Structures are given as C-alpha cells and as structure tokens.
Amino acid sequence: MPVRQPLPNLPIDRLRDPALRTIAAKLAAGERLDRADALAGFDTRDLIGLGLLADAANRALNGEVVTFAANQHINPTNICVLRKTCAFCGYARLPKEQGAYRYTLDQVLAEAAHAADGLTKEFHIVGGLDMQAGLEYYVTMFRALKANFPHVHIKALTAVEIAHIARIEKMTWSDVLAALRDAGLDTLPGGGAETFSAAVREQIAGKKLGGADYIGVHRAAHQLGIRSNCTMLYGHVETHQDRVEHLQMLRDLQDETGGFLAYIPLAYHPDDNALGAQLGRTGTATGGNDDLKMLAVGRLFLDNFRHIKSHWIMVTQPLSQVALHFGVNDLEGTVVREKIYHAVGAHTPQGMTLDQLLRLIRGAGKVPAERDSFYKVLRTFEGELAALPDQDAIARAAAGAA
C-alpha cells in the first residue's frame, strides 16, 4: 500500500537544480516519481537540495524518530559453491580451503549466548551456499534457537540461500520457506540482491540467483506471510540507469504484496576480492556524495516504503549520522560481531553498544527509539534527548573565552 502523501511547504527556492524543482512540484502534489526523476536524483549536483527533499519526505512519515534494533549477526558457514564466481566477495571459502568453517549446533548456540541477557531482540543469520547445510541443518538450528531464546526474532537466509536450499532438496521456494517458517523463521533479510541488471550480474556474480528470481523468492515469502527487507549493492560497475531499474523492480513488488519492511542500500568495498583487483581499486569504493544519494533517491522513489536504513558498518558511523538528514529513519543495530563485510577490509567496528548508538542518533538532533523486527517501537529515549548540552551555548562560551 503506498505511503506517499502531499508534501506542502517544500523549500523550492533553495533548490539549485531545475530537475529537483520538478521533483518538488510532484512531491507537493502527492504524485509518484518516475524513472526519469530517479535518474535526475542520481545525476544532480545539488546534493543539499536532494537531501532537503528526502528529509521532508521522511519527516512526513516518521517525524524526528530514528529507530534501531538490538540485533546480533550469526554467520553459521562460509563454505560456498559460488566461491570462484562472486567477484566482490572475500568471505566465502571452498570446503577444504583454509579458513573454511561450518558451525555445529552447539557452536551456533554458543555464539547466540550473547542473547541470554535479554537485550538482544533479533538474530540476523546469513552465510554461504554450503552443500552440507540443507533444510534440516537450518530447521534444527531455528528450532533450537527458539527453544533457548524464545524472545528473539529470527531474521535469516537471503533469497539466494533459500533458492540454494530448494535446489539441493528438490523443493519449491514456497515449500522451503513454509518449512523454515514452521521451525521458527520470522522474516528474511534483504541480502543477495546485488544489482539486478543482467549485464552487471554477469560481471560481478555470473552464476548467482538472478534479479527476477530474487524478486520471485521474496514474492513467495510475502505470499506466505513472511515479511522481508531488500537491498542493492552499489559502487562497483553499475550505471545510474541500472540503479533506477533495480529500484523500479523493488517498488513494483511492494505495490503488489506490501511485504517489504525496509530498503537498505549496501556500499561495495573493493579490498580483498577479485572485483576490486580487476578494477584496480582499494579502500572505500564509494564516496559520501554517492552514499547519500543512494539513500535520498531511495526515500523519494520508493514511496511505498516507510523505512530506509543506513548500514553504518559499510558507510561508517559519521556518514550514517549525516544520512539521518537525507531520508534515513533507521540504522543498523548493535550487531555484536559482523564478519562478511569485514572480510573485505571494512575498517568500521564489528558492533556498537547501545550507548554508542544513542549518542550517534542524538548527535544528529534526532530522537532514538529501539524497535522490534517489524518496526514496532519498544522504547524511546526522547526524555534523555532534552538533557543534551546546549551546543549553541557551548559554542558562544568558547568564542567568548577565545
């Protein structure tokens, strides 16, 4: 169901790009943006103007509240049949390769033990396409996690992993999803989307599940009542047009099912993977300008999504803080220990404490709120926001002292 609404009082006089003024007029009238508008957003040189529009659209839906989940990442196996074909991955291993692992059930439960304190509300479980990790492996895992941590939501297995299990078990996507749901699966993460363009996929992940099938798995999940997230990997070889086509496919499925919870753009990192070596890149592949555009255009074009998330692990905490004024209303949570992105050289922490998350959100002048996996607010920290020091007063005092 579309969540867009007319946006009056937009700062049109502050927009330097005529294309953004055209977009603003559509937003003011509650009209849906088209592909040309999304492309104009990616092409614009008026980043601040684009941010003003995205921020207005976000505030109309979510006010000043920024949510996060107290979550924990668990990666039960890095063994993957696509080890040699996903050029952007530095995490996967072949079965006998050094560093390959597959957790036993006891190891999964040991890693999940952080949740025993009651603070963790979500397990985020993804891994490799392991031929020995089929349906029974995950059914047993999910049942055990629910038995030991009944308060924790299980968000697990990308569309690529679901299709892999279906293939090795000779089952339909829907049958696999139903069996996992009955074992305790609550929602699906959005990973594995990469960029839907067939030409791009051929270059970065030629044998991976295609874009149409990614959409098909999520459609099957939504039809079973399983909500999901969605993503886009950007900053490698894709064009702006490729990005727009990807967003269009996501918006179309959301129109059809309403099953997506959030959109999360994921920045490509070139270290320690074949694609980075091929492109001759090291360090951070994307810049802040591009990162913010990905979020802002997502907010404006995906008008049937309420939640846009910034993944601070990929774009750093400072950039994610700025993103809270570019259409973002949700941040990746506490995580505890992230492996996959750090396997390609990420320099961000593997997790953040609750206090660190609160400080980041408050520093942007926003109201922090902990949510559950369905975006229901569990508690807010609004009262504490009012207790922050008066930054203007501090600046005036410092100027006087100088």
Describe the structure in your own words:
By secondary structure, the protein is of the alpha/beta class. It has 17 helices and ten strands. The model is unreliable at 336-348 and 384-402 (pLDDT under 50). Strands 5-6-7-8-1-9-10 form a seven-stranded mixed β-sheet. A three-stranded parallel β-sheet has the order 2-3-4, with helices on one face. A hairpin with a 5-residue loop joins strand 9 (367-371) and strand 10. It folds into two domains: 12-62; 65-382, Alpha-Beta Barrel (TIM Barrel). The protein has helices spanning 18-28, 35-43, 47-62, 105-112, 135-148, 159-169, 173-183, 198-204, 211-223, 240-257, 274-279, 288-301, 312-315, 317-323, 354-363, 382-386, 391-401; strands at residues 65-68, 71-74, 122-125, 153-156, 228-234, 260-267, 307-310, 330-331, 367-371, 377-380.
List the helices and strands and how they pair.
Layout: H1 18-28, H2 35-43, H3 47-62, E1 65-68, E2 71-74, H4 105-112, E3 122-125, H5 135-148, E4 153-156, H6 159-169, H7 173-183, H8 198-204, H9 211-223, E5 228-234, H10 240-257, E6 260-267, H11 274-279, H12 288-301, E7 307-310, H13 312-315, H14 317-323, E8 330-331, H15 354-363, E9 367-371, E10 377-380, H16 382-386, H17 391-401
Parallel strand pairs: 1-8, 1-9, 2-3, 3-4, 5-6, 6-7, 7-8
Antiparallel strand pairs: 9-10
Helix pairs in contact: 2-10, 2-12, 3-12, 4-5, 5-7, 6-7, 6-9, 9-10
Describe what is shown at a glance:
With 402 residues, the protein is α/β, with parallel strands linked by helices. It has 17 helices and 10 strands.
